């Protein structure tokens, strides 16, 4: 009966990160010792002070439907966070709380894009961007970046990608999957191009903002001339290790926020009550409360780069944020390893899963066919063992 499914769902890709995680679980169930370095999920527990606030919310009977766009006091906490961390002034009518930042992104695509509108995606980009754009009947326009520019799009590349049909630019900083962080000067360079094209809007995905080793996060909405045309997307999944709590949010021009609220009212309504109460506590806490996690990620990054650097054929740069490395492994293309011919990044990733029992993700899913994504959101013990296994089978 699958032929009765809509063309929309038949043409959609399955999330490569989730697919690899499912494959790894399947192999574990068969008794194989799989080390998972595929999911973008912190391996820390949620800080206790956040857990306590969730328990208190249960005791306080927060069990009713929530406002579609989020509790007012949560939106106040988000507004204060934007001012404190990003120097951005978003009023409560410009903020929408959703069931994860992924829903925030989907909402924006659905309320801004019309059929045929083009969306520029600097590649590599987060795995879901392209399919979300396509669901909204937009057209993804991939701009392939290079490892020697730390996978960051240049102003010249942006200018070359713009056409009369360009409606939006979507990017993340710190970036999933590359870990790249755009500096203020680099964002100003992109902004100068965009100022020539006043009808292009920007989605700035800043979910990894606090996992940043570059010495400070910069929001493009804070660059001169960009505030009224930028949708700033954030959430608590990464920095606060709250992936399963599913809370994301946007700060945006009021007309976009109103559109997102209207859409969300017909799709999911308001986000989970208990999670929202806990997020108030998380956002009101000083960033120093989660610094121990950021410091640990920094240590793991250096560990992984050092170990991978010992493997011939891995071309590496130094990511400045998030918790991924994105090595170029095209040196292995055309080679035969243990009877398996490696033609592309997908072959390479599958080879590591089947022969090293290590789950990674092909860069093809992120718009870059020469790389794989390795998450170091895992224990040092697992990281050392995983890279030892990779080295052995190569």
TrEMBL record:
Gene3D superfamilies: Aspartate Aminotransferase, domain 1, Type I PLP-dependent aspartate aminotransferase-like (Major domain). It holds the Pfam family Aminotran_1_2. GO terms for molecular function: transaminase activity. Keywords: Aminotransferase, Pyridoxal phosphate, Transferase. InterPro entries: Aminotransferase_I/II_large, AspAT/PAT-like, NHTrfase_class1_PyrdxlP-BS, PyrdxlP-dep_Trfase, PyrdxlP-dep_Trfase_major, PyrdxlP-dep_Trfase_small. CDD domains: AAT_like. Its cofactor is pyridoxal 5'-phosphate. Its EC number is 2.6.1.-. Residues 32-390 form the Aminotransferase class I/classII large domain. Belongs to the class-I pyridoxal-phosphate-dependent aminotransferase family. This is Aminotransferase. It comes from Flagellimonas profundi.
């Amino acid at each position: 009966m699958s032929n009765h499914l809509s063309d929309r769902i038949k043409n959609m890709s399955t999330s490569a990160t989730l697919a690899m995680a499912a494959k790894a679980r399947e192999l574990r169930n068969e008794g194989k010792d799989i080390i998972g370095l595929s999911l973008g999920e912190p391996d820390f527990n949620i800080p206790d002070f956040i857990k306590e606030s969730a328990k208190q919310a249960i005791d306080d009977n927060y069990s009713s439907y929530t406002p579609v766009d989020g509790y007012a006091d949560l939106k106040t906490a988000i507004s204060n966070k934007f001012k404190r961390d990003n120097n951005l002034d978003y009023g409560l009518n410009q903020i929408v709380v959703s069931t994860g930042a992924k829903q925030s992104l989907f909402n924006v695509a659905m309320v801004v894009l019309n059929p045929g509108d083009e969306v520029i995606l600097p590649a590599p980009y987060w795995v879901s961007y392209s399919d979300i754009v396509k669901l909204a009947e937009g057209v993804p326009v991939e701009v392939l970046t290079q490892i020697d520019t730390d996978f960051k799009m240049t102003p010249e590349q942006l200018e070359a990608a713009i056409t009369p049909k360009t409606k939006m630019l979507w990017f993340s900083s710190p970036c999933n999957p590359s870990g790249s962080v755009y500096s203020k000067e680099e964002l100003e360079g992109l902004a100068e191009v965009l100022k020539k094209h006043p009808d292009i809007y920007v989605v700035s995905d800043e979910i990894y903002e606090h996992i940043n080793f570059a010495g400070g996060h910069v929001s493009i909405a804070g660059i001169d001339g960009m505030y009224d045309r930028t949708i700033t997307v954030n959430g608590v999944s990464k920095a606060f290790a709250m992936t399963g709590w599913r809370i994301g949010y946007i700060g945006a021009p009021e007309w976009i926020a109103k559109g997102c609220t209207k859409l969300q009212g017909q799709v999911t309504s308001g986000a989970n009550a208990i999670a929202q109460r806990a997020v108030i506590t998380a956002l009101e806490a000083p960033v120093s409360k989660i610094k121990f996690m950021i410091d640990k990620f920094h240590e793991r990054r250096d560990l992984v780069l050092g170990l991978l650097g010992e493997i011939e054929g891995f071309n590496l740069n130094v990511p400045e944020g998030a918790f991924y490395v994105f090595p170029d492994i095209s040196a292995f293309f055309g080679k035969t390893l243990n009877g398996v011919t490696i033609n592309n990044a997908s072959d390479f990733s599958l080879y590591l899963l089947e022969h090293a029992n290590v789950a990674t993700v092909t860069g093809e899913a992120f718009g870059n066919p020469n790389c794989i994504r390795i998450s170091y959101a895992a224990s040092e013990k697992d990281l050392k063992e995983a890279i030892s296994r990779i080295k052995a089978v190569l």
